[in-house]
Structure formats: C-alpha cells, structure tokens
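SEQUENCE-TO-STRUCTURE ENTRY
===========================
Question of interest: how does this chain fold, as expressed in backbone structure tokens?
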Amino acid sequence: MEISRQALYEALWSSPRKELASVWGIDPNTITYASKKQNIPLPKPGHWTLVSMGKPPSQPALIGDPDESVILEDPPRKPRKKKSSSSTPKKVAQTSGPTPTVSSEPEPTVMDPVTSISEALPTVRKAYKTYSSPRAARDYKYQHVLPGSAEVIRIAVMPEMVDRALLLMDTILREFQKSQWKTQIPSERDRNKNSVFVEEVEILFTITEHRQQERVKSESRWTTWEYRYHSTGTLRFQFGTSSWVHEIKDNKRKKLEERIPDIIEGILEEVARVKQVETERKKREHIERLESRLSDLVRKALNHNHQCEERLNHCIAQHQEALRIRSLVDAFRRSDSPDQRHDEREKWLSWLEVKANNMDPINNQNSTDFSVPKDLVAQVCSMIESDLDAYSPLKELDLEASISKVARRIDLHESWKYK
C-alpha cells in the first residue's frame, strides 16, 4: 500500500493504529514500522484515552517533505534469541506475527525486555542483591522478602518470584525513562512503595504477589488456628495515590510482561483523574472564598431588614405605652380630686402628659426612621454594583443561589448559637 507522508500523518493522529490497520487490511506493526522509518511522529501510549476524556495532548508537527510516498509493507523479521540456560524465570514468548491488544495502542511501541538481571538497570541489580540474599529477612505475616537496604526498589513477593518481579520492574522503569518520567525509589511519602512523577503528579507504585492462604492448627496453642501463605506466581502491579489504589495483574490471557501498555495507560488515566480532582478542589475552594466574602454583604442586608423590624416593634411599643399613659391621665381627670392635694396631682398629671407626648412616635415623626426591609438578593446585588472595585469577583457566582445558601447558613448558625 502506498500513501503520502502527510496523509499518513493525518491518519495517525485522527484514529488509533489498530483501527487504521483494520480499514486498510494490514498489520498494525506495518504502520508503526513505516512511520518510524519515515520519521513520522506517533501518538504516545495513553493518547487516545486522554482524547476520550476531552484532554488531547499536544500534537508534534510533521518534519520533512509531506508529499513523499510511503510504502506500507511488513517489517523484516528479527531472528529469535536463544534463551540462556540460567535459572531466570520463564518469559512470555514473543511472536513475530500480529499481537492482539486490549488498548488502542499496539504493543510494539514497548521496548524489548531484558532477559537476565545482569542486563538490567543498576537500581534493579542493586535490589536483586538484597532481595535474593540467603540472609534476606521475611515479612512476619505474609512471608514475602524484605529489602535489606533503605534505598532499593520496593516489591512484595516470595523468594521464588524475585527474579521475575525485578525483570518486570526493569521493563517498567525503562518505559518511564523513555517517557522522561522521574522516579523516586523508594517514595518519601510511603517507604513501602516507589514513586513516579508524571506532569508534576506523584503516583505510587509497586509489584506485589497474590498469595495463597492456608489455615493450620497453631503449634503453640492447640485451641487456635494460624495462617500460612504460599506463592501463587501471580504478580500484581499496584499504583495510585495514597488514598486511591489501582491494580493490573496477571490473567489467563496475558502476563504482566505483555501488559506494559496497559500499565502506562493506567498511570496516564490516574494522572488525569488526579488533575481533575485537583482542579475541582481548587474551583471549590475558590467558590468557598467568594462565598465567604459574599457572607459579609448578606449579613449587612439581613441586619438592615432585622433593624427595620426592631424599629417597628419599638415604635409600636412606644405608641401603646403613650396611649396607656393618656388613658390613665383621662381616668384621673374624670375622678374627684382631694382639695388638700389638688396642686400636687395636677403637676403629676401634666408630667404624664408631657411624657406621653415625648414617647409617642406620632408626635416625633421628624426623628423616626422610615426605612423598610428590602429583597435580600436585590439588596446584595445593589451593594456589589456600588463598589465593583472590591466586589466584582463575586459576579462569578450564581448570586441568587449563593445568597440563599449563605443566608440559610447564617440562620442555622444563629439558631444554634442561642441554644
């Protein structure tokens, strides 16, 4: 099949290679081989997952002649390497034909794994010395091998699975290096795990073994039972944050060695999830800060309406008291006055009349506050508009809903304060 570099470049960044291979009737490896040979940039593992989440990564530009023809033909097969007779764990056979994959990215993008510890990264070789030592300590409960040094890769497997777990870890660490992800071994946040930093997000990871539990009679006390754990040969790659852990493990169809793309894609998805949670947290905190500022205005509006009600009640009480005093004065006027105390009584009644007149708000309307309660939302919006320099950020809120929410919170707080 012949196609131009520009057309192949556009196709690669519009659909996964697996789909293109199905439409064109060729092997996905053929597309990968031809693209690398012609220096056409390929989407990285996890690209289509991010696209499906609405967060497509940046797309590199095509360099070179866009009209140059590309022939899509099967890549030459590499001769299979003979396995060494050493006691290395049995590796999953790599076939030269097309390999079915679960993710949208074909597996050939993963580099070939090493087959012996001597070829592994220095950190892996260092870990192998401590985990494979005959003097290596065992975990008291689960009996997996414990690290003999504070600065080695963290895994939790039985002694017979150390080689395979570390070779698998070597492949994973090489993929991290290829993606330019920094690692921290072991993690400062959790000394039982390792850390990888992807786009400034820290992801904890380790390799553990699924163990088989056996219930046996206790050797020390015949009335109790003890549990012993045995190796099953099933490895699990566990990753996530301290509060959220995911797991990818061996299954009947594929071993972890064949699921490296799933591991990379899973880490990218976890990074995207962490970023989304962090974005939502910052947005929530921003809204809370705005609502805290809004609560000051809501309190002022509520205090205004409350003062209006208090003035009304005070006005009614004063007027009723003035009417009572006048009623008393009239009753005294209608009654007979003793001659010997007539002058004293008149002075007292005159004082009561003056007191009633001074008390009655009807006679003192010039000093009466005729302010009326206002709609809470309209009042707060008016205060915001009157000082936009200070309160313009509050317009980011749904003011009607936020004012009602803050008002309910204030009423609840006041009700509990006096209980």
